[in-house]
């Protein structure tokens, strides 16, 4: 009997090393990548067979045997397993967790291939072919002629036996076809053939090297730096067409699917059923179907948010990351991985082109391009040279000196007025949802905090309650201060809800839509709002970051940013980069059609370089300043970072564990130029009743540190969060 290495498919860090099991002869040759059923302790668990072991001597314990084989074909290709291993070692998660990223659902239930069989009747079928004696068969045939075809399960439910169905299926003119249920995207009526629009000269220059790489089946990473509206999406369509023309699969990653319906529509309308759209709102069975379609090469293009990078494609010919700078490619909960790294690893393994596109490339990507690691491609102008929007910066301190304490500066009011008067549309960005940002007592200064987290509660008008944005806690608005019993409770700051109210008060006839997490938690509402805005059912779209990305609204001529400072002031090394991105991307929404665009940015820091460079549409100027800061301060891309948070219900325990980790690592790496900072209080001291202490590790090369952690007790420490390459 052979000895197989099995990874137990369960999210327990303790189980991340493979276990050995015997493979009984009766199962024959089982390929690596197949899922199996094994005994573990007193229960049965699903496992993934990752390979076989040479047993040099008989082990001194009894090996248990594999109970059953769950797949007829291996689910995991060797490339998928290798990539999972890389993810596990690089991002410090268990191998099982990394493998699970490639599966459809994370539970232990078996994922049967989603089959549904159909009986299809051709138009020429003649009922007299069936003898009148075969009453049931005739009845079935008559029904099929009438409806054209029906799923087997439905026919069974209608009372036709397997035998009757089988016999009718053998008749000439009728055949039984296997199809996946509900998998067709079916947008044929939309087919536009957009990919056949001739490229402009500028696009052509950029496309040539991509095409060449696809044709030669080589691996190369391209960084496509093109301003908003320069025709990047058009190039993705072209490259995808080239890729599927070679029978290969293209993976198109977009930041968040709701924000990008535009690009999805363009792909679907260009390629129809070749496209599988993968997003988080799909049911498990829809996911299953989509994955199966890719696996069987029924469709060759997958478009989706970060998890689509795990598509089970065997032959990838192109991977595109649109808006490559976007932070949503990094998963921040559960398994912390970055889809960009995964895309690059898979691209290398499949020998294919990886195309990173952005109007504001991440500082790290641009640095890599300047060092020659990526090939830089540039589209500096908008298609047909429409001008970039004109940006005005308003110093909010001066507004206050002049006595204007409202959230809208005079310039902002004027812009809204003009836009409405001209019958154009406007986007207004405010980074805070809710009504007021916090609730405070005027007499003693007490802020109402969440009892489970060290954060202020936020007032939400809908439901008239206070909500915590870090846990599910919510409570009625207090009428008296819990500290001094004063009745003078006041709401401070303003969120999207309050601004919406203000807008309605000032502009009575304006049609205003609000888009934030509170609205979009209801399925499809976000898509609907965007669609209605596109169709001019609203004049103003007000929202959080969701309004800033990817949209291409032709009639939007104005953009207002209420506080540029909310991003500038976040305590991370990349705050300026994020602010520059947000301002530039949001501004880029203005004037994409024939009309020119105007942008007003309100801020308390009008001299900040991220704001000034964004106003000037000067990416390179911003990059040059930022990269020097990073170099001087030792931040990425010059040094790597690992951020850890120790969480514990007891504050002193959290402290003890964190200190032990720092001491051990410091001791082990004392001769190397690696900084271990901490433990110090994490940005938010307590979330969901768990105290949090953080540790920051920085060094030019942290591979050895990762290796050490991976193989030590630290890796399996309960409550420890490890964030590699925090952003
Ligand atoms: P980006 O993705 O860089 O924002 P898009 O690909 O969306 O740019 O292009 C901006 C606009 O120009 C879109 O409306 C698109 O349909 C149009 N466009 C792009 N390429 C061409 C082309 N070669 N010929 C005509 N129109 C184009
Ligand atoms: Zn009080
Ligand atoms: Zn809370």
TrEMBL record:
One of its GO terms (biological process) is double-strand break repair. It holds the Pfam family DEAD. GO terms for cellular component: primosome complex. Its cofactor is Zn(2+). GO terms for molecular function: 3'-5' DNA helicase activity; ATP binding; ATP hydrolysis activity; DNA binding; zinc ion binding. SUPFAM superfamilies: P-loop containing nucleoside triphosphate hydrolases. It comes from the Bacteria. Binds 2 zinc ions per subunit. Its EC number is 5.6.2.4. Zn(2+) 2 binds at residues 450, 453, 468, 471. Initiates the restart of stalled replication forks, which reloads the replicative helicase on sites other than the origin of replication. Recognizes and binds to abandoned replication forks and remodels them to uncover a helicase loading site. Promotes assembly of the primosome at these replication forks. This is Replication restart protein PriA.
């Amino acid at each position: 009997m052979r000895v197989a290495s099995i990874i137990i498919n369960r999210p327990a860090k303790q189980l991340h090393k493979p276990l050995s099991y015997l493979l009984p002869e009766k199962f024959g040759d089982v390929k690596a990548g197949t899922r199996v059923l094994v005994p573990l302790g007193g229960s049965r668990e699903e496992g993934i067979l990752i390979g076989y072991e040479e047993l040099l001597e008989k082990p001194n314990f009894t090996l248990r045997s594999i109970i059953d084989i769950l797949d007829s074909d291996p689910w995991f290709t060797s490339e998928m397993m290798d990539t999972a291993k890389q993810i596990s070692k690089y991002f410090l998660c268990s191998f099982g967790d990394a493998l699970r990223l490639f599966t459809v659902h994370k539970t232990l239930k078996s994922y049967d291939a989603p089959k549904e069989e159909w009986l299809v009747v051709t138009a020429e079928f003649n009922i007299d072919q069936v003898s009148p004696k075969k009453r049931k068969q005739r009845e079935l045939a008559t029904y099929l002629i009438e409806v054209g075809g029906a799923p087997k399960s439905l026919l069974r439910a209608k009372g036709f036996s397997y035998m009757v169905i089988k016999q009718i299926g053998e008749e000439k003119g009728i055949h039984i076809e296997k199809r996946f249920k509900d998998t067709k995207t079916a947008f044929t009526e939309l087919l536009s053939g957009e990919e056949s629009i001739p490229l402009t000269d500028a696009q052509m220059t950029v496309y040539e090297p991509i095409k060449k790489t696809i044709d030669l089946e080589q691996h190369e990473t391209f960084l496509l730096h093109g301003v908003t509206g320069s025709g990047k999406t058009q190039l993705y369509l072209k490259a995808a067409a080239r890729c599927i023309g070679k029978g290969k699969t293209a993976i198109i990653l977009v930041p968040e699917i709701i924000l990008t319906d535009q690009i999805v529509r363009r792909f679907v309308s260009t390629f129809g059923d070749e496209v599988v759209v993968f997003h988080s709102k799909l049911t498990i069975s829809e996911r299953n179907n989509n994955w199966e379609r890719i696996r069987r090469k029924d469709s060759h293009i997958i478009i989706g948010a970060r998890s689509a990078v795990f598509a089970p494609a065997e032959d990838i010919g192109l991977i595109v990351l649109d808006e490559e700078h976007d932070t949503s490619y990094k998963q921040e909960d559960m398994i912390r991985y970055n889809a960009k790294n995964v895309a690059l690893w898979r691209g290398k393994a499949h020998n294919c082109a990886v195309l990173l596109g952005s109007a504001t490339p991440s500082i790290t990507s641009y640095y890599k391009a300047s060092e020659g690691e990526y090939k830089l491609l540039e589209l500096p102008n908008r298609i047909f040279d429409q001008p970039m929007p004109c940006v005005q910066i308003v110093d909010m301190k001066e507004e206050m000196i002049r006595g204007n304490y409202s959230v809208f500066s005079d310039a902002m009011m004027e812009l809204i007025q003009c836009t409405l008067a001209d019958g154009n549309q406007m986007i207004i960005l405010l980074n805070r949802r809710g009504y007021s940002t916090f609730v405070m007592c005027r007499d003693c200064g007490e802020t109402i905090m969440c009892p489970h987290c060290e954060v202020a509660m936020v007032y939400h008008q809908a439901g008239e309650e206070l909500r915590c944005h870090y846990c599910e806690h919510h409570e009625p608005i207090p009428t008296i201060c819990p500290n001094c019993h004063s009745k003078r409770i006041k709401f401070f700051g303003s969120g999207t809800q309050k601004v919406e109210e203000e807008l309605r008060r000032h502009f009575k006839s304006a049609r205003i839509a609000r888009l934030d997490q509170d609205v979009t938690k209801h399925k499809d509402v976000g898509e609907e709002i965007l669609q209605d805005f596109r169709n001019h059912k609203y004049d103003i779209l007000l929202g959080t970051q969701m309004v800033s990305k990817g949209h291409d609204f032709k009639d939007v001529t104005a953009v207002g940013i209420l506080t540029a400072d909310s991003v500038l002031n976040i305590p991370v090394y990349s705050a300026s980069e994020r602010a520059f991105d947000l301002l530039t991307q949001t501004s880029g929404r203005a004037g994409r059609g024939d009309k020119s665009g105007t942008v007003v940015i309100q801020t308390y820091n009008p001299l900040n370089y991220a704001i000034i460079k964004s106003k000037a549409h000067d990416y390179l100027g911003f990059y040059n300043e930022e990269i020097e800061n990073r170099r001087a301060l030792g931040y990425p891309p010059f040094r790597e970072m690992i951020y850890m948070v120790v969480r514990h219900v007891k504050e002193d325990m959290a402290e003890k564990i964190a200190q032990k980790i720092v001491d051990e690592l410091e001791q082990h790496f004392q001769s190397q130029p690696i900084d271990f900072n901490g433990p110090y209080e994490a940005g938010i001291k307590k979330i969901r009743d768990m105290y949090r202490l953080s540790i920051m590790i920085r060094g030019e090369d942290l591979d050895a540190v990762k290796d050490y952690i991976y193989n030590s007790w630290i890796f399996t420490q309960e409550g420890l969060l490890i964030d590699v390459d925090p952003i």
